[in-house]
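Protein: Major vault protein shoulder domain-containing protein
Species: Neovison vison
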Amino acid sequence: GAVASVTFDDFHKNSARIIRTAVFGFETLETKGPEGRALPQPRDWAVFPQNGLVVSSVDVQSVEPVDQRTRDALQRSVQLAIEITTNSQEAAAKHEAQRLEQEARGRLERQKILDQSEAEKARRELLELEALSTAVESTGTAKAEAESRAEALRIEGEGSVLQAKLKAEALAIETEAELQRVQKVRELELAYARSQLELEVSKAQQLAEVEVNKFKQMTEALGPSTIRDLAVAGPEMQVKLLQSLGLKSALITDGSTPINLFNTALGLLGVGSEGQPQAQKAAGMPGPTEGLL
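Structure follows.
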């Protein structure tokens, strides 16, 4: 009654407190809730005066809705939340990759501008030196001409070295940015694959638990008496009992009588003994129903 009187959403959020209240009972405290009503507080234990039994703890193993529509809606909600989380992670990864790419491009463009500026500066100095060289050459002094040419070559060589150095630094920056981007993408892909694998494992475990519970409930629903009746009844009565229980076929044995698995499988498939090879009958093999209780 304590569980049936609350909504599924409330039970899903506060299942432990509601179950403890149902088992231990509760006492009303002076603490007020959002609507001004006193909040029930579950007791810490339950005492049975008949035998003095004291229950001090309740362990909730699992909570599963009985209604199929509620179970399906809850499963869809979980799947939708997983899809939303996955899409959010993918969008964040793409955004991070684009951001890193833009930063790398920005640094590269800035480095190109700096390289062009340095090259233009060196070119200007070179032009100035060429002008100086031309002026010296016009004076007819061979020594000044040689010095100016040597200086021009030196500056040109320094400019080439500087330009090559700047290009190497720009390439290193671009390579590092690309490496970081690829590493980030690989980490996100690995995290996504790991989460998908964990979800598949969890889903398989849940399905296995559902199948085990289904088989257990079916066996408990049949009961020992029904299974005994199926074992001692004739073939026609077994068929009627199986049809009334909604079963198509069943194999019941006491665990000590040997079973001819080949003929038993044919019997479960509806193939009579007349459809079996004569060689099997001559060899003394039992029929489909022999060895069954």
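Remarks: Residues 8-55 form one domain.
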